[in-house]
Amino acid sequence: MKTTFERYVKKIVNQTDCTKEEKEDMFEELLLHLELSRDDLIKQGKTPKEAEKMALILFGDEWEIGSQIQQALFPYRKELMLTLSIVSILFTFSVYALQLFQEGNAYIGWLLFSILTSATLLSLTLNLLVSINRKIMVNTVLVTHALVYIYGWGIASAHDFTLFPLFSLIMAAILLLSLYLIYKTALVLPGYSGKNLKKAKLLHISNITLGILILSVTLFFLYAFLIFSSEVQPFMLLFFIPTVLWISLYILQIKLLKKHPTASNICAVLQVLLVLAIIFTMMILYR
Fold this sequence. Notes:
The protein has 287 residues and is an all-alpha fold. Helices cover 79% and strands 0% of the residues.
């Protein structure tokens, strides 16, 4: 059964968008601080129960502390994600309404999916969703959100209306802000310092950039084949092999980085070679 201190600290760390490992480190550090404060109060003559209660009072409100830590780790990110969510929702309804009024028909599936990703992003921003690994969850939603709105841009470009230049600017801003938040979220690494921090940042930058390349190429091939095919074919799942490899090797590199940095570097090189080889093979087959 968890102690009062453990429940208190758990509420604090759950408000941050750190990885599971980072949350564990933060949990231990905050718990130790509280225990030392309690021990000092006991030495001053307080009973254990009084010392525990006073240590919590001196530490402060757990929700406020969690919010402050989150803001310190990710400055201005809450405001940027809130802006991204609201602008995206407004953009979605605008594209949907224009298409509906112009052609009498609209992509209801895209509307629902884009609203779902934007609403999920908004819920994460307002801390309405709690996850063991909020960092991965936030970045997954941001990547999905960017892909959905790229498709929305394609829908908007297929229709001739005077507001398209304005829509293009808004869409470009949505995509750039999404990419910025993806990099910004991934590069906050409280569990690293010194050379390890530099290596971890380089690992994330290279992997995210490679992931954007892979997803872009995958979507291109899917789009190209869907143009010539009236329905989705099972073999099209093969296009996702580079994505699966990228994700698997990305996770492996992170796991190896702290204890086996050399193995992590070798894995990174193999990842790039494998993915590029598969993409090159796909391009040859496409021709």
